[in-house]
Amino acid sequence: MINELFKDVDHRMQMSVEHVKQELSGLRSSRASITLVEHVKVQYYGNPTPLNQVANLSVPEPRLIVIQPWEKSLTAEIEKAIMSADLGLNPQNDGVMIRIPIPPLTDERRKELIRHVHQLAEESRIGIRNIRRDANEQIKKAEKDHELSEDNAKRAVDNVQEMTDKYIKQIDEASDAKETDIMEV
User: Fold this and answer.
1) How would you label 126-165 residue by residue, b for 16+ Cβ within 10 Å and e otherwise?
2) What's the CA gap between 55 and 76, in Å, rounded?
3) How far apart are CA 14 and CA 158, in angstroms?
4) Which of 7, 20, 30, 125 has the fewest beta carbons under 10 Å from its own?
5) Cα 24 to Cα 174: distance, rounded to the nearest angstrom
């Protein structure tokens, strides 16, 4: 029972960290990255489809993203989707491909992005702590129901705290890395 609890806690915490890492990768920095646009939804035969499933994405230069749709008829739709995604990017459509120059970030935009990074990291930390709380409640219930001894319950709570510390550290590292990336000129 306790091993299954640990596996569940570990899995849920790991998923929380992966989620925040994915969210952070989609935030704009001073360098071009396809992660900025790959999840933008494009209307493709009436269905919202991620951009990376209807076009080739590349970064030929540090400040340029190039999108080559598999169907030329999609260029206008892709351009519209990028504009409506509120990424602060201005795509240039030549009818065959779309070029997105990545302008340098202003100081105000950098501060705004960093606030957003901190907010995402804190939400993820709260999620980790909620998982810890749920696990500790299950451990206390098992102890109360005499399924666990007091010593084993204490060890289990300590193990859950170790997992919590490990995953919060990973969130902090990802957040710090993204903050450093945003502050680069």
Assistant:
1) ebbeebbeebbebbeebbeeeebeeeebeebbebbeebbe
2) 13
3) 18
4) 7
5) 8
171: region left, alpha or beta (phi > 0 left; psi from -120 to 50 alpha): alpha
Task: Look up the pTM and report it.
Answer: 0.72
Cα 84 to its chain centre, rounded Å, is 20
DSSP letter, residue 29:
-
If we measure between CA atoms, which residue out of 124, 75, 134 comes closest to residue 100? 75
User: Is a pLDDT exceeding 90 seen at residue 119?
Assistant: yes
pLDDT in tens, 50-77: 888 888 888 888 888 898 998 888 888 8
Tokens 């569940």 found at: 8
